[in-house]
Design goal:
By secondary structure, the chain is of the alpha/beta class. The protein has one domain (24-247): Rossmann fold (3-Layer(aba) Sandwich). It contains ten helices and seven strands. The protein has helices spanning 24-38, 56-59, 72-82, 94-100, 102-111, 151-154, 160-164, 181-199, 214-217, 221-235; strands at 44-48, 63-66, 87-93, 116-121, 170-177, 204-210, 239-243. It has a seven-stranded mixed sheet with strand order 2-1-3-4-6-5-7, sandwiched between helices. The radius of gyration is 17 Å and the shape is globular. The termini are far apart.
């Protein structure tokens, strides 16, 4: 019998710690598949965040480094500048990248550091109790906004792709979702383009992934997927926001 589907070599054969219905696992697989297809596992370094994906180093066969909360772009910068032949990626949530790590990602982007950033946006602090995150949408209920986020009190959500793509050091920025086979295929193409952008030495590349959090959203996995399509994607439109290669 011909085997048509298997685990990527870059993905370890261990049980992940994510809640049922969370799409971190899908994002992990796509990153691993891209690393396999590009043939760079032996020279890839992943920078692990703080948050739900803190155990990233257990899920990938490549080398990895644990960064302090929000500091993944700074750690990745050090690795890439010291070892420029390495393929370096960070994997960060919205609290990690868009809150405590805002300065790190902005300045890494402004400098055009030749790294790849996988940014998981589930509009909440998933691991620490479901508090409001920088990406929590107006009206969204969280444990710290039980009546829904109000712009007058908490400001407006940060749209990371729109925020970073105008910076000259950003070579590629795209926002994707994982809610259907078609969207997963588009997400993989974006992630592969981001890694290829780094291999081509173009500058910082970022893929923002709209992800589910059924536990903190208090939804079933299917409801959470529908919420991404109907609510999140309406505020955070999918698509490419910058691709310097396509203009050449």
């Amino acid at each position: 019998m011909q085997q048509v589907f298997s685990r990527p070599k870059t993905l370890t054969d261990v049980q992940m710690a994510y809640c049922p219905g969370c799409t971190h696992g899908i994002a992990h697989r796509l990153v691993a598949e891209v690393i396999d297809e590009l043939g760079v596992m032996d020279r890839t370094v992943g920078v692990c965040p703080v948050g739900c994906s803190v155990f990233l180093y257990e899920y990938f066969e490549c080398d990895s480094i644990q960064a302090a909360h929000g500091r993944a772009p700074a750690v990745a910068t050090g690795v890439k500048r010291t070892l420029p032949d390495r393929v370096v990626f960070t994997y960060q949530g919205d609290g990690d990248l868009a809150a405590i790590g805002t300065a790190e990602i902005v300045h890494a982007a402004a400098r055009g550091e030749n790294i790849t950033v996988i940014f998981i946006n589930n509009a909440t602090y998933g691991m620490t109790g479901g508090q409001m995150a920088p990406t929590t949408m107006i009206g969204q209920e969280t444990t710290t906004t039980p009546g829904g986020r109000e712009a007058a009190k908490a400001g407006h959500p940060i749209k990371v792709c729109e925020f970073l793509s105008p910076l000259e050091g950003v070579a590629y920025a795209a926002r994707v979702a994982l809610t259907s086979p078609a969207n997963v295929a588009k997400a993989k193409r974006a992630i592969k383009t981001a890694f290829q952008t780094q291999l081509d030495g173009k500058g910082l590349s970022l893929v923002e992934v709209l992800s589910t959090c059924p536990t903190q959203w208090v939804m079933s996995p299917l409801e959470a997927m529908q919420h991404v399509d109907d609510v999140m994607a309406a505020y955070y439109p999918l698509g490419e926001y910058k691709n310097v290669t396509s203009k050449e």
